[in-house]
User: Fold this.
Amino acid sequence: MPTSPWYQHSLDTVRELLCTCIGPKWGDAPEEKIREIRESRYTFGKRLCRKLDIQPTDTVLDFGSGCGFVSRAFCETARQVHCADLNPEFLAFTRDELSMFDNTSFHHISYASIQDLPDASIDKAVSTAVFIHFLYYDILFNLIELNRVLKPGAILYFDILDADAIDLHNPAAIKYHIEIYKDSVRGDGFLLQPFSSTALLKLAPQLGYEHIDTEHIGTGNSVAEITLRKVAQPDLPDWLAAKA
Ligand SMILES: C[S@@+](CC[C@H](N)C(=O)[O-])C[C@H]1O[C@@H](n2cnc3c(N)ncnc32)[C@H](O)[C@@H]1O
Assistant:
């Protein structure tokens, strides 16, 4: 499966789950800070509800929902929320985490295939801290599949670590990952994959998206929050349409 090997490991403990989901930011024992982590991600989710104008009539997809901490904000606001993740152990955690919401369903998906969801069924798709792991090819195949499930005019939000914004002389956002990567077997143990927002804005219109907004946040303003609108089907050449 062409995605980061991090997400195919068995995650035996809450500690491992949290370390995988949130990275090194909360230290070696994040399970001791789970309340703060939950609150912090929930607050981020509330901000996204405002930014994306999530309405009580909306059907929302949280793509790569992780522990469900961000999703909780959508569950409180939207008509229906679909949490989708590649990793069944994250989904099991999220199912418990969000068990009090009867408007929420959980989908164990395969790579770039949200097979449970019909075409044109989603008003807002949100993917936080997921595309930051993606290579160009992952972005391509996942944007094609997300286009399928979005209604015409629907909104897609995701964040990338913007290669255009990285400065090696002010490297806080990327230093940890570069250090890990240098000593790893290629591709094993690196978490973040910078991707250029310029390249993204060239790709998006070919895949049927109009650019709405880019907002830079985080350390050194290196995380680009990208908001797109689905305006058409992907315009794929024959060789790619046969693959997608
Ligand atoms: C860093 S966590 C982010 C979780 C959550 N969105 C948040 O912001 O707290 C990344 C999540 O994306 C999932 N993931 C990774 N690659 C994926 C893919 N290709 N498709 C769907 N989910 C993926 C992982 O299993 C994990 O749950």
About this structure: Residues 34-51 form the longest helix (18 residues). Residues 3, 7, 21, 41, 63-66, 69-70, 85-87, 90, 109, 111, 128-130, 133 surround S-adenosylmethionine (CB under 6 Å). DSSP finds eight helices and seven strands in the chain.
